[in-house]
């Protein structure tokens, strides 16, 4: 590798030398990155790898969320479990695809961190060859706990020591924060290593682009109805400018666009998901994305408060999500405040 190319390994060693992370966290992130490489290979094989379609045989299988699992949901979960069980840096892990967290069994080497992940985000896009990804969040295992249970994972997003996602698109990009900025690492497929391609990503504070699943419009709460109506009104409306709209339906891809060129991503509370508290999961979707976005100068809110300060009560808890360009997330918050 040429000396001016900074690999993920070198970046992490430099962070360790600067005293910003310890060796265990460095190695944990390396293990997660390696698992993401394996998932990237599986995703890339598509129909040739036999990885498309539903998991299970007759009628498919359903996960703890009541959602149909795809083969790649199951495979990605297995890859992450297998890699991390042996990694030696974790006390326990939790996944979208598993009802409860799992402590690392006694027979394996153990560490002091907890890992949460959405092994394959954007499942509805797998079979149509659109970008999907893996999202992860790292917490400290509470002091004195040797066999962590679900309750030990229930820490606010502010407690995350690292967070990231890997987007499997035309290129595979690992996006990482250890609490000192958000950085992009692109996978060099020939060499098999992640290379730093953008340091200190910054999200513009203003934007003219928003992302929301507009098919839910009739179910939205009044402040979201008003906010989106004002965006759509464009130049002649109260916002005085035209807005563009994008919706990939893979949170990783939508957030990656926002980290790259700004925008606001919304999955608000609506009448369909109000009983569950929202659509997106707090612990392994909203929290890691919120940390990445804040570390890039953006904002992340439930519409009524900072996502990272939500006190979790359940492992698979859901929350409303507004994240991206700071001024636009603040504007969405004002519409909520005015309505209450
Ligand atoms: O299908 P909808 O309602 O547009 O929802 C799309 C959202 O659902 C998700 O796919 C949920 O993630 P999973 O695929 O991990 O369940 C998000 O990535 C995305 O933002
Ligand atoms: Mg997801
Ligand atoms: Mg998923």
UniProtKB/TrEMBL annotation:
Query: What is catalyzed by this enzyme?
Result: beta-D-fructose 1,6-bisphosphate + H2O = beta-D-fructose 6-phosphate + phosphate
Tell me which EC number(s) this protein carries. Answer: 3.1.3.11
Share an example GO biological-process annotation for this protein: sucrose biosynthetic process
What subunit structure does UniProt give?
Homotetramer.
User: What EC class is this?
Assistant: hydrolase
What are this entry's molecular-function GO terms? Answer: fructose 1,6-bisphosphate 1-phosphatase activity; magnesium ion binding
Q: What does the sequence similarity comment in the record state about its family?
A: Belongs to the FBPase class 1 family.
Which InterPro entries would you find in this protein's record? FBPase_C_dom (IPR044015), FBPase_class-1 (IPR000146), FBPase_N (IPR033391), FBPtase (IPR028343)
Q: Which UniProt keywords apply?
A: Carbohydrate metabolism, Cytoplasm, Hydrolase, Magnesium, Metal-binding
The GO cellular component terms are:
cytosol
Lineage, top-rank taxon, reads Bacteria
Q: How is the cofactor bound, as the UniProt entry phrases it? A: Binds 2 magnesium ions per subunit.
High-level lineage: Bacteria, Pseudomonadati, Pseudomonadota, Gammaproteobacteria, Lysobacterales
Fructose-1-6-bisphosphatase class I N-terminal domain mapped to chain residues: 7-198
Query: Where, by residue number, does Mg(2+) 2 bind?
Result: 118, 121, 285
Pathway listed for it? Carbohydrate biosynthesis
The chain positions of domain Fructose-1-6-bisphosphatase class 1 C-terminal read: 203-335
Where along this sequence does the record place binding of substrate? 121-124, 213
Recorded hits in Pfam families, A to Z, give:
FBPase, FBPase_C
Q: Which cofactor does it need?
A: Mg(2+)
Query: Where is it located?
Result: Cytoplasm
Q: What is this protein called?
A: Fructose-1,6-bisphosphatase class 1
